[in-house]
Amino acid sequence: MNKDTLKKVLRAIRPYRFRLVLSIGMAFLTVVSTLYIPILIGNGVDCILGAGNVDFPALRSILIKMAVVILVTAVCQWVMNIVNNRIVYSVVNDLRRAAFENIQHLPIGYLDRHPYGDIVSRVVADVDQFADGLLMGFTQLFTGVMTILGTLIFMVSVNIWIALVVILITPLSLFVAKFIATKSHAHFKAQSESRGEETAYINEIITNEKVVKAYGRESSVMERFDEINERLGRNSMKAIFFSSLTNPCTRFVNSIVYAGVGVFGALFVLRGSLSVGQLTCFLTYANQYTKPFNEISGVVTELQNAMVCAERLFELIEMEPEEPTPAEPVHNKAPKGHVEFDHVSFSYVPDKPLIRDLSLEAMPGQHIAIVGHTGCGKTTLINLLMRFYDVNEGEIRIDGVNIRDMERGELRQMFGMVLQETWLKSGTIRENIVTGKPDATEEEIIAAAKASHAHSFIKRLPKGYDTEIGEEGGGLSQGQKQLLCITRVMLCLPPMLILDEATSSIDTRTEMRIQRAFNKMMEGRTSFIVAHRLSTIRNADIILVMDQGHVVEQGSHEELLEKKGAYYELYQSQFAGVAT
Predict the structure, then answer these.
(1) Which of 56, 82, 347, 571 is most exposed by smallest CB count within 10 Å?
(2) How far apart are CA 274 and CA 251, in angstroms?
(3) Strand pairing of 526-530 and 367-372?
(4) Whole-prediction pTM value?
(5) Which helix (H) or strand (E) holds 393?
């Protein structure tokens, strides 16, 4: 078991230490009352002296005591279970919240490098497994350890020699438990990793099921799934096999303990140094002493699984977040939109540079169009501007202030983004539109929808603006989803705009109307327009032509055509059929 992970779990439990003390107190009372019952049973047996010779008054008193003790035990166990459940689910709630909160602060690069399904598996499945193991640990570990110690104390007080027999056989049970725990940990870890991989793969395939069907990849998808599923099955079987050894192995050791107590106890009875009632008490203690070893061995196995899951969860919680906001950030309450890229260099992978020594300037209110071949760095430029990624070298400044000196939230509120990839959540049409302006009035929402030409199709929906849509806009066409994203920006009207293939999913007629709406929206606003269709950027103030992370040309549409360079080739490839 990973000691560092165990320390982290204990730190997570620390805020609930008073509940933990109460739980331990209830466990102590439960064990003491449980261990007192065999003494009462032994005394009761000794009250039966022979046929027709029974001490009924003493036996009646013993039975009343037993009833009271059993009632106290039941109440203590009930309270202990309630407290344990509250501790476990409070800890789990804290950890799950910490994991989800850290996801909000992780760099986009981390999310790009890790399958979403694996992250979901850590926050959901691994946390549930951890909760089950932790609950079993609280419920059975404390009482098990206390029962073993208490039983030994009671047995030593009755007959130290028989107690020594039990103590000498105990290491065998501990050795068996340690062997099984060591073997099972590696397999539980492999099982947890395989489960996360399978969850990620299922998530990926369900998300892209249309692509799978369109290209007839069902068979290859199933082959890959079967390989992962089979591996998960193998790891699970190995983990289950070793964990299933726990019960028979510990029962075998327990039987040895019970037989030893019976044989040695019978000899002491024959010698007259032990009564039949005391031997009955000893045999009951032998059962109670060995039973926790079964439980603890099972608990250790579950805790191994829980610790593996906790390790994966803490790895997510402790993942280095994105660069923090400066202690004293610079606030820009009235941004003008003067944007500068000053000798900026960036790469997603250290040994594969993408943008190198890029410098450009956008004056307030200018419309900057960015064009170029796929992979030249157009969208990367937008990612850097929004601080989804941070530059490796150089600076990006807005109104003379380095964006690293600003709060990320405040920086991103300066921009309105409409991307080729739509960002919609499950909920109503209205909830999706007001994402950037939750306090918008009905009139503002409708005005924004009319400006983006979304109002007409929204009104045709069953419940209009209150129509529920699924995750990622399920139930809407790609063009309708894009119109909603445009409406969202129309509603906020921030001082700067980013349009990354914003009309790529819209028919030509609607695109012309939206283009007019965009032109109105962009008046007086610094705008960055990433486009493949060059017809949409002819009126841009400056067109930047990018190639392999460099701006190779810049100027107006007419100026660039006259140069007959890279832009001219792009333009001809779209409108004159000339290959590049």
Answers:
(1) 56
(2) 27
(3) parallel
(4) 0.63
(5) strand 393-398
Residue 183, C-beta contacts closer than 8 angstroms, at least 6 positions apart? 242
| Residue 364, both tokens | 């307030």
Q: What is the pLDDT averaged over residues 329-352?
A: 84
* Residue recorded with tokens 């910490």: 98
Q: Is 272 left (phi over 0), alpha (psi -120 to 50) or beta?
A: left
Could you give the CA distance from residue 564 to residue 578 in angstroms, rounded to a whole number?
13
- Measured distance CA(423)–CA(459) in Å, rounded: 21
3-state secondary structure (DSSP) of residue 526: strand
Residue 72 has, within 13 A of its CA and on its CB side, a CA count of 18
Contact 44, 284 (CB under 8 A): no
Q: Which of 428, 463, 465, 462 is nearest to 444 (CA)?
A: 465
Percent pLDDT > 70 in the chain is 90
All CATH 1.20.1560.10 domain ranges of the chain, comma separated, are 87-317
DSSP of 149-179: HHHHHHHHHH-HHHHHHHHHHHHHHHHHHHH
Secondary structure letter of residue 330 according to DSSP: P
Rounded Cα distance, 432 and 569, in Å: 40
Whether residue 522 contacts residue 418, with contact meaning beta carbons closer than 8 Å, is answered with no
Q: Tell me the HSE value of 570 on the side-chain side, using a 13 A CA sphere.
A: 24
State the architecture of 339-575 in CATH terms: 3-Layer(aba) Sandwich (3.40)
Task: Give the architecture-level CATH label for domain 87-317.
Answer: Up-down Bundle (1.20)
Residues of the chain with CATH 3.40.50.300: 339-575
φ, ψ of residue 363 in degrees (nearest 5): -80, 155
3-class secondary structure, 221:
helix
* Per-residue tokens: 270: 């024959």
Place of tokens 């360079």: 565
Helical axes 276-317 vs 127-136, angle rounded to 10° = 160
